[in-house]
Amino acid sequence: MVESRIALVRAPNPSPMTLTGTNSYIIDCGNGEAICIDPGPPIEPHVDALIAQCERVNCKLSWIALTHGHPDHAPAAALLSKRTNARVAAYETSEIARDRSLRDGDAIVAGDITLQTTTAPGHSADHVVFYEPREAALFTGDTVLGEGYVLITPPDGDMRAYMQTLARLSREFANARTIFGGHGEPVSDPAAKLQEYLEHRRIRERQILDALQNGDKTVSELVESIYAQTNRALWAAAAQQVLAYLDALEREGHVRSQQMKNSEPLFTLSSNSG
Ligand SMILES: [Zn+2]
Q: Are residues 174 and 235 in the same domain?
């Protein structure tokens, strides 16, 4: 087995949404160059830590690659690029200032490291993942995490696109050795993790359809019945998830919503569903 050239540098921004903090990665490219994936939030000591890691492996940073533009992943790109002259690469629809726009299939190459870009919409519309063949490493940003599940918040988040992304990743990267996510610890069984993620989403969607089978419901009522065993502190996030499923199901004609006067919309199963 090749010795790993991937170093995880965690940003000091822990929170319920970012778990123990955002994961930034520095990859030693073997020729004196390095690539940073997701430099993280704009926290100066974290930028110092990323530069220190490059110095530790005697590398000059040449690329900063972004999985997506969220505030806990991307804003340090500008600070880090200013201090190192590294070029910033992000998906072509990203709102982040960049030197290179990435599309599906594009590769970032430095030394003997190649990062293959795969578009991964769902958590955000501008999300991509990077695959590094030398270590069979899949960098998933907020598409797959080291623990827990990913928050999908419409309208930028799209549950159906997210499920299609998970299915594509599990088809194309079943042989990946490690998933390096945007939060949490590295995952050593990518195929199982991707299956578990997909299964979790299918079960939730089924639960929503089953609940609507027993009568029309609002998002709050759906959360109460489906997340009954879940800590109430998480119900607001759960409501976002339920809404994301309903949004997809409504677009596909499986459910209809009706705005009730002075209250939440009421969701109804369409007659062609079940
Ligand atoms: Zn995110």
A: no
